[in-house]
Design brief:
Structural class: mainly alpha
Largest sheet: none
Number of domains: 1
Shape: elongated
Order of helices and strands: HHHHHHHHHHH
CATH class: Mainly Alpha
Number of strands: 0
Number of helices: 11
CATH architecture: Orthogonal Bundle
Radius of gyration: 20 Å
CATH topology: Tetracycline Repressor, domain 2
Strand content: under 5%
Distance between the termini: 51 Å
Oligomer: single chain
């Protein structure tokens, strides 16, 4: 039924996803949806979480091997291409839109999204260790920003592929700037650290 829920979302969208369409996709009696999950919303939330857990596990080794922000962005590019090919970007867009006005769906979708954010945060803590940025940056907040940026780019690219490409290239440039900061000499690093701290207090 979990796979059936995702298939129904891909084929019919949120508005067309019901116990009937899920049951048809899963090849089961629709009464089982309510017996096992209580509601269609609960089933959709569980399906999204399971699918995301599988995707995070699939990419865990790639995340663990990341040693720089540019490598993290490269993994993000690979993940984006894979998610787009599998139709998961469409599911993401549908569920995020539905969750805006559906409290029962909002919490499981938020928790599902957090799985990616937690993985990204772990990478950021590792690659930024010792960097002047790490001393002042809100790493959990930065992880949320990166996760949100990729979601936004995934959705935006559907209507403006060139704009999405340019946005990704701009993020790559920021990653290069961070690497340059790490290569500065001791004096320049102290000046940079001081300026970053002052900016953070404004």
């Amino acid at each position: 039924m979990l796979d059936g829920a995702l298939d129904a979302l891909r084929d019919h969208g949120v508005t067309g996803t019901s116990a009937r369409t899920i049951a048809a996709a899963a090849g089961v009696n629709q009464a089982l949806v309510f017996y096992h999950y209580g509601s269609v919303d609960e089933l959709v939330g569980a399906a999204c979480r399971q699918a995301t857990e599988q995707r995070v596990a699939h990419y865990s080794d790639r995340f663990a091997a990341v040693t720089s922000l540019r490598e993290l962005l490269q993994v993000g590019r690979e993940l984006h291409a894979s998610e787009l090919a599998q139709g998961n970007v469409s599911v993401l867009a549908q569920t995020l839109a539905a969750a805006q006005s559906n409290a029962r769906l909002a919490e499981p979708i938020r928790a599902t999204f957090q799985l990616w954010t937690t993985e990204i945060e772990a990478v950021l803590r590792r690659v930024l260790a010792g960097s002047p940025i790490a001393e002042v940056a809100d790493v959990p907040g930065l992880a949320q920003a990166i996760s949100s940026a990729f979601v936004g780019l995934e959705l935006f690219e559907g209507i403006d592929p060139d704009g999405g490409r340019r946005a990704m290239e701009a993020i790559d440039q920021l990653a290069v700037l961070v690497e340059v900061m790490d290569e500065l000499g001791p004096l320049a690093t102290r000046v940079l650290r001081s300026r970053i701290k002052k900016a953070g207090k404004r």
